[in-house]
Amino acid sequence: MKKFWAAIGAFLKRKNIVFSLHRYGVDALGAMAQGLFCSLLIGTIFNTLGTLGVGLFSRTFGSAALTLGGFASAMSGPAMAAAIGYALGAPNLVLFSLIPVGYATNMLGGAGGPLAVLVVAIVAAEFGKAVSKETKIDILVTPVVTILIGVGLAALIAAPIGKAASYVGNLIMWATELQPLLMGILVSVVVGIALTLPISSAAICAALGLTGLAGGAAVAGCCAQMVGFAIMSFRENRWGGLISQGIGTSMLQMGNIVKNPRIWIPPILTSAITGPLATCVFKMQMNGAAVSSGMGTCGLVGQIGVYTGWLNDVAAGTKAAITATDWIGMILICFLLPGVLTWIFGLIARRIGWIRENDLKL
Fold first, then answer.
1. What domain range includes position 231?
2. What is residue 254's predicted lDDT score, i.e. its pLDDT?
């Protein structure tokens, strides 16, 4: 029996198949977010430019009658699956075979398609890796196994996974509508923390379809982390740090957080304040793409998503017009308050010795 398990272990090692939370919950999830960014998110930005009258992005092409943004968004399933396969070190034939797997899974998964793609693409990729280059007809065997396993599994579980993810997302959004103060704090803090951790807050928001007031709270939490760390660490990192964290990612501080977890307290406290302000005072909603809820100020995607939601609401007749209060709320929640509050909390933490010189140095 020991020889059997030793042989299995050697085979998995040779095939680079590693069953671990880090491989699937960090590497694969993070790659899935990148796939979403390069398809659905870019498509959303293109479509927003189209609604603003930029001719190239409002023009439809061919019999498909899709815009550039429409084409990009339609490929979100394949983009996510291919990104996951790449993160798992899939050989070329497996990687390319994941494209139809992702397309089928995302379609069958409905509103919860991203979560279904994450699960199905991981399983299909690992099976594909297991058979890759094991036969003389690899050109046939590997794609057949990967696609059959992937699409077959998608047919069985994509819809239930999608429904479950959609249910959880709807539950969070319902609870936020019912208790905007409490849930505003909870969603803002949790999604903000996820943004800074080496996991993907964008993928989580997309998988749960987090929009509405809950999406607005998520944006607030992400902005508190990104803008907060950028301002709080300005004395150590200057302009380069301001840009790399403010419109890049607060994940850059993860190494410093491990060394001194107390540097995380100021942006978390800020998110606990800006979240309920977003839900209770300014009623800021994310009615654009759900993935934007977990992006914060990264490339200003969160703000573009909120603006896209305004346009969608105006077009649907649920919102009369974009008001000055909308803009004031966005600027305060996404930029001014995260910077000012985190700077104040950070200054207090420095005064009492919780944050020392160069603790925030990148």
1. 179-351
2. 85
